[in-house]
Design a protein that fits this description.
With 427 residues, this protein is mainly beta. It folds into two domains: 1-40, no CATH class; 44-348 and 406-419, Neuraminidase (6 Propeller), CATH 2.120.10.30. 10% of the residues lie in helices and 29% in strands. The strands form eight sheets. Strands 1, 2, 3, 4 and 5 form a five-stranded antiparallel beta sheet that branches. Strands 6, 7, 8, 9 and 10 form a five-stranded antiparallel beta sheet that branches. The protein has a five-stranded antiparallel beta sheet with strand order 15-16-17-26-27, with no helix packed on it. The protein is globular and about 70 Å long. 43% of the residues are buried.
């Protein structure tokens, strides 16, 4: 196996990790000089990621909810973590995010992000629970949890140390109402904060602005997984009152939002708004932080430059770069660089945002629409955010509103790609 750098080794290993004897789409492909395709190790069950600790040990996590250690090229006989009974491993869902604490080799902390099996969510801790029972194709949540591995070897976790950071109950997790668009990547910023990318939890079949027949919205409402105001499908990506479609930034010790987050509310540190660092994502399956970027002080609101691969819908895919808090990557009103006609035309009220001009007579639009609160950016913010009842009046600054942060590149499912407006990315 010929490589020039650990980064290239990681790329090759990551492709292999998708669980195929050869990566999809690479059959017969000619590699660039100094790149090659070689089997590193077989025998995995749907592995979805890998990382290393500071001692060079490899950690591989599987979609079913198991994490394994590979030491000196040999997989240890028992998993570091096995929560298969809790993880909902169906369709695109499963145990997709994993991170080691920056001080793992001394404190033993590990973190996982996963879809929760509905049977576990609704019955664990009661007489109705059966560890061998699964309930799939039903409303549930995504969860972020911390465990402590037992030192000094750190080869196995102490399950009694389990601490749920996000999603302690069905009322506090990230809603999951369809077969995809759930958990993504889990990573640490340079400032020690924990970052997570999560999907919109909505349908991938239709323009979903709530009550879509192929989703589990009704069940989620009854269970309290979503509030009535959150029954807006993919528009949850634009709601500060929803975890869906966000880049979250939390305290790894508590799960609280970080006070330097753009919409942090000290009265509700565990609210979605307090945890949100950026928004407007659809299915941000994988993200990474640029090495040696960012500040070491959480108060600076600069965890590093974050590269987010967001799976878009039927036309474009995109790569977003988050270099500051408060960025809005546009979904579902934008797909890639351009407006999405289906969602742009589906005027949908954000029931968390009353219209300050509403009086029932001269202004009959009681709530501002998502389309009113997000606009395509221009060099001078041309036209701003006019109130739909009176275009001469701007929506006040007290109401959070956004300009579209364009992707640095988007590409068709064929061979066409486009670059967004040039941008200077902080080091």
């Amino acid at each position: 196996m010929t490589t020039l750098s650990p980064a290239r080794t990681l790329v090759a290993f990551g492709l292999w990790l998708m669980g195929y004897s050869q990566p999809i789409g690479l059959f017969g492909q000619t590699y660039q000089p100094n790149f090659s395709d070689a089997l590193v190790m077989g025998g995995w069950v749907s592995p979805v990621g890998a990382t290393w600790d500071t001692n060079g040990r490899l950690y591989v996590w599987e979609k079913r909810g198991q994490v394994w250690i590979v030491e000196n090229g040999v997989r240890l006989p028992n998993p570091l973590l096995n929560i298969s009974d809790e993880v909902g491993d169906w369709r695109d869902h499963g145990f997709l995010g994993f991170a080691l604490d920056p001080n793992f080799t001394t404190n033993g902390y590990i973190y996982g992000m996963y879809a929760v099996d509905r049977h576990h969510l609704m019955n664990h801790g009661t007489g109705s629970y059966n560890a061998n029972t699964n309930e799939y194709y039903a409303a549930t949540i995504m969860r972020i949890t911390r465990w402590t591995a037992i030192g000094p070897s750190f080869n196995a976790v102490n399950y009694g140390t389990r601490q749920v950071l996000v999603g302690e109950t069905r009322f506090t997790g990230v809603p999951l109402l369809h077969e995809s668009h759930s958990t993504g990547s889990l990573m640490f910023g340079s400032d020690g904060t924990l970052l997570a990318t999560v999907g919109d939890g909505a349908s991938y079949n239709v323009v979903d602005v709530g009550s879509s027949s192929d989703t589990y919205w009704s069940q989620a409402l009854v269970d309290g997984i979503i509030r009535p105001t959150e029954n807006v499908g993919a528009m949850r990506s634009q709601m500060l009152g929803s975890h869906n479609g966000k880049l979250l930034r939390i305290d790894p010790a508590t799960g609280d939002g970080i006070p330097s987050n753009p919409w942090y509310n000290p009265a509700a540190p565990r609210s979605p708004q307090s945890r949100t660092f950026a928004l407007g994502l659809r299915n941000p399956y994988r993200a990474t932080i640029k090495p040696n970027s960012g500040s070491t002080n959480p108060a600076d609101a600069n965890p590093g430059v974050i590269y987010i691969g967001d799976v878009q819908w039927g036309t474009w895919e995109d790569l977003n770069v988050c270099y500051e808090g408060g960025m809005n990557f546009g979904w579902p009103l934008f797909e890639g660089l351009t407006p999405h006609s289906g969602y742009m035309s589906a005027l949908t009220a954000n029931l968390d945002v009353p219209n300050p001009l509403y009086d029932g007579v001269s202004c009959t639009i009681q709530y501002l629409r998502f389309q009113d609160l997000l606009k395509q950016d221009t060099p001078i913010h041309l036209n701003g955010h006019p109130n739909p009842c009176n275009p001469a009046v701007q929506i006040p600054n007290a109401i959070p509103k956004h300009f579209h942060s364009r992707p640095v590149v988007d590409w068709l499912h064929g061979n066409q790609s486009r670059c967004g407006a040039s941008m200077a990315i902080p080091q």
